[in-house]
Amino acid sequence: PVQDWDSGNVTASVGSSGQCVCHVFLPDTTFPADRVEHMQQVSKDLIVEVEIQKNKLVTYEDKLVIYLAELKDLEERLTIMQSSPDDYIKLDFELLRIELREFEALVSQLKNSLNSSSSLFDSLYIEIQNMTFIVNQLETYDKSNLEVIRYQFAKLQKKLEECQIDQDIIKPDVGNCNHTGILSIGNPLVVQLNAHLNSNYLYGGWGRDSKPIRGNENMHFYGAYSSPGAVYDFYFYSNYENLILRKAIKQYALPGEWQGTGNNYIVHSNAIYYQHNSPFSMTKLNVTSSEYEYRVISAASQSFSYAYSSNQNLDFAADETGLWVLYASTQNMGKIVIAKIDEKSFGIEAVWPTGMYKQSAGNAFMVCGVMYATRSVDITTEEIFYAYDTKTKQERNLSITFKKFQEKYTNLDYNPIDQKLYMYNNGYYVSYNVKFNKE
Fold first, then answer.
1. 24 burial class (0-12, 13-18, 19+ CB within 10 angstroms)?
2. Euclidean distance between CA atoms 244 and 222, whole angstroms
3. Neighbouring residues of 397: CB distance < 8 A, sequence distance ≥ 6
4. Which of 150, 156, 233, 330 is most exposed, with the fewest beta carbons within 10 Å of its own?
C-alpha cells in the first residue's frame, strides 16, 4: 500500500481509483532566464558605450590641450594689448590725420598754383573730408581699418597725379629721345612720408626699377637712414600702391662687410647699385640671387660731394641709353666726370670730364645721354642750371626752375620707364613729370 508522503515542495497520495498521484509545488518566483539574458545584453552594450566614451575622452583631452594652448596665446596677446593698448595705434591714427592735413594743403596749393577750379579738385576735397570723418569716428583700432584708409590714400594720390598730368599737359613718349632736351619740370607730387614714418630719416632714396625684368614691371624701392654716412637696408614693393601702404615684399639688410655710404643709389635691371664703404667702390647687389660684387674706380675721389649732403661721391643714374655713374676726380679738379657702365662686365666703358664743379651742384641726373645739374635758388625753388651732352661733348648753361616741397633733398634721379624725376626730399617721397622740347 502507498501512503501519503510529504517532502516540502513535493507530496504524494493515492487517488480515488487507486493510482499514485504526485504533487509538485513550484513557487511564483521562477528563475528569470529572460531577464538574465537581457541584463547580459545591457552589460555588453554598457561595455561598448564605456569604450566609446573612453575614446571620446582621449579625443577631448587632446582638443583640450589645443584649446588651452590657444587660450594661453590669446591671453598673452591680450596682455600685450592691455599693457600698451594705444601706444602705436594712436600714433598711426595721428599720422593719418597729419597726412590728411598735408594732403589737403597740397591740393589747395596745387589748385592755387594752377589757377584751376575743375570738378576733380572738388571731388578730392570731398574725399579728403570723408576720410577725415572716418578717421575721427573710428571706435575700434585694428589693422583692417588702417589698411582701408591706406587704400583710400592710394586712390587719392592716383587722382592727384592724374590731375597734375592733365594740368601740366605732359604726354610721356617713353623710350624715345626725339627731343632737344628738357623744356620744363612739372609741379611736385608729394606722395607721403617715408616707410619708417620717421621724419629724422632725411637721407635716402626711392623710386622704381629703371629697367625692370619681366614680372617686376611695377616694382618700387626705398632706403633711408638718419645719417648721410650709412646705407644699411633696402625695401622692395610689388607696385606703387603697396609702397604707399608700406607693404614690402622683400627687405635687404646689408651685412657689415657690404654696408654702403651716401644716398645716390638706384635699382636697375633687378639690381641695386650703391656706393661701398671699404674699399671705396661701386657695388652691385643682385636682387634675385642676393649676390654682391664691387668695382673700384681709381680716378674717383671721396673729397667731393653734392652741396646738400656729404658722402655722395658716387652717383648712379639711368636713362634711355643705359647705366651711368657720376663722380669727381682730383685730375679734373673736383669737377664731375660722367662714366658709362658696361652692365655685363660691370666695368667702365667710357668717361667724359665736364666743367661742372661738383660741390656747386645740389644733385645731377642723366636723360638721353645728357647730364643735368641742379642748384638751389631759394628755400622753395630749385634750378637746372647746367647740361653736358656726351654725344656732342658740349656743355651749356640753363635756367629751368621747379618747386621743392622742402629745402634740401638727397636723391634726385630720372627714370626712363615713365619719364619722371624721383626726389627724396627731407624724408618725403616726391616725384615730377618732365616735359621735353620737341622743336
1. exposed
2. 11
3. 385, 386
4. 330
